[in-house]
Amino acid sequence: MSGENPPSPLGSGAVEADQPRALAGANADTSDAATQSNHGERLHPLGLFVDIVLGLPQLIVPALAALFGARRSGLQTPLIVGGLLFGSLVFRWLAWMRFRYHLGSDDIRVERGILNRTIRSIPYDRIQDVSIEEKPLARLLGLCEVTFDSGGGGATRDDARLRFVSIDRAVTLRETIRVRRAEGGAAIVAEDTRHDVPPIFAMDTSRLITLGLYSFSLAVLAILAGLARQFDELLPFDVWTLRHWRGVVEARGGMIDGLTASARAIGASLVLAALISIGFATGIIRTFLREYGFRLDVTERGFRRCRGLLTRTDVVMPIHRVQAATVVTGPVRKRRGWYALRFVSLSQDGTDAQDFVAAPFATADEIWPIVRHVGLTPPDAQAVFRTSRVGWWVDSLVLLVLGTVAAMLVAVTVAQVPLSAAIWMLLVPLLCVPIVWLEWRQYGDHADARQLYVRQGWWRQRLTIAPLMNVQSVEIEQGPIARMLGLSTVHFGIAGGSLAFAAMPLAEARAIRDRVLACIAPVDFSELDRRQ
Q: Is residue 359 part of a domain?
């Protein structure tokens, strides 16, 4: 993975979750599937138990509502809780009984629904990959979820999911579908069964701890505070309520006033140290739960990623579906040489949460070989990034000031807020001045003969690289102020996301639009998802 001192991306394992079967085993299962009854196959019976347990949190709100209403009816609490559990059990049992999946000669068919019957057929040549996810309870019972990724998102992915099957059955399903989908099935299975090939990227325990320290978070405190405020009236003991602790603070107020300045400083330092410790501990725990055993392999189909401590996931990203690469870092991480690599995929809905994380915490020497593997290249060391005009960013500050002044006038005239208090609202645009300046300093874009580059963000610094041939549309946008300045924004539409060149002179915007359109005109986008 070492290279020849690659440039800085933003300018100025564990054992695999499954043991793939040989081709003979996959072919044997294929013949078994061909002779199965027309009724199809049910999910694993133990999956019903897992589904019921995982659905218990969804019963909390109905149970609270039922208990609140039962105060007047005189019903006993065990009767209400038992009725809810029995109803949930019956509903999930009926859903399990009515669920079937069929492995046909050309497609896989999923049938579901108790009253409204839904049947979805997915041709094998449209299935990009079979993803396997092992959640904690299911993993203890030897079960997992199987998702057939056909390029859709949202509810479409839920319709193509099996909850739950045995791990052996999941592996067999994946190998069978790959063999039926590909002409050279033996080569694909052989690629996945080579365990002596080292991963292209992996993370050990020390790197996980380092990433956890960078992932400082106090979200757990906000969640606990929100739960305490939400269920304050329902908690049985006053000692747990906010009212109790508010009273404790008020009762101890005189004691705190009697402390010396040094004692107060020590107390405040201890509180601050406790918050910092909680933040670091939360970051480390969340990182271990999500990234433990992270391993990225290159297979015949693409990148195969395995990760997770409690919930183990095994996902493959076909290389031909990568539309763009995004290298992410921050002002602190960048100084230490740490970056993250994400791929924008055809199958996602355009949200960052669904980007394929190829390397969550890596150096430049580790990231660029992965980027080159999908046919993308880092920006040349001699590449000059175009910076946007500072007037573009000043306009945003002017608009912010005008909006703040308007809000002040409304507060003073309508809400009768004193002018001395409303004038503090001007601090908002004042505090935004250094942020806008830093954003302007960081922004840059560049286009060469093959790729587009956009560098943006101050705190969350991002470098996006997209091939010209993956651009599906080009749009030039001009607002009223931009029109007066002779500037425009060029939006490049790509599957699963977009990128834009901001504050570009109109003549340059039209020139790059014509250049990109000339490059993408011969591309048949209907065939991009079919390339092997």
A: no
Query: How far apart are alpha carbons 306 and 156 in whole angstroms?
Result: 23
Q: What is the mean pLDDT of residues 29-42?
A: 55
Q: Are 529 and 318 in contact (CB under 8 A)?
A: no
pTM of the model: 0.76
> What percent of the chain is predicted at pLDDT more than 70?
74
Residues 157, 263, single domain; the answer is no
Q: Which residues of 174-191 are buried (b: 16+ CB within 10 A; e: fewer)?
A: bbbbbbbbbeebeebbeb
Are 142 and 92 members of one domain?
yes
How many residues are listed for the chain in this entry?
A: 532
Residue holding tokens 């189909």? 301
CA 475 to chain centre: 27
Among 160, 192, 224, which residue terminates a domain? 192
Model confidence pLDDT, tens digit, residues 436-449: 888 888 999 999 98
Q: Are residues 116 and 40 in the same domain?
A: yes
CA distance 331 to 435: 13
**Domain match, 36 and 163 both:** yes
The residue from 291, 324, 340 where one domain ends is 291
**Strand intervals (E) in 35-192:** 100-103, 107-112, 118-123, 129-134, 143-149, 161-166
Q: Are 505 and 470 in contact (CB under 8 A)?
A: no
What is the spatial distance between Cα 274 and Cα 295, in angstroms, rounded to a whole number?
A: 34
Range of the domain at 253: 214-291
- C-alpha to C-alpha distances, 278 to 94, 246, 289, nearest whole angstrom: 44, 22, 16
Q: How far is CA 334 from CA 7, 11, 23, 435, in A?
A: 12, 10, 46, 18
Question: Which pLDDT tens digit goes with each residue over 320-370?
Answer: 889 999 999 999 999 999 999 999 987 544 334 457 899 999 999 999 999
Residue 17: Cβ within 10 Å count: 21
CB 495 within 8 A of CB 479: no
> String of b and e for 286-314 (b: at least 16 CB within 10 Å)?
bbbebbbbbbbbbbbbbbbbbbbbebbbb
DSSP reduced 3-state for 116 = coil
Position 61 in a domain: yes
Q: Are 324 and 343 in contact (CB under 8 A)?
A: yes
Which of 44-48, 190-194, 401-405: highest mean pLDDT? 44-48
Contacts of 384 by beta carbon, 8 Å cutoff, 6+ apart: 446
Residues 233 and 268 in one domain: yes
The candidate with the shortest Cα–Cα distance to 189, out of 198, 200, 197, 178, is 178
Number of domains in the chain: 2
Query: Among 358, 374, 384, which residue's Cα sits nearest to residue 466?
Result: 374
- Is residue 163 pLDDT above 50, yes or no? yes
**Residue 114, CA atoms < 13 Å, CB-side half-sphere:** 7
29 located within any domain? yes
Mean pLDDT of the chain: 78
Roughly what angle, to the nearest 10 degrees, separates helices 390-413 and 427-442? 160
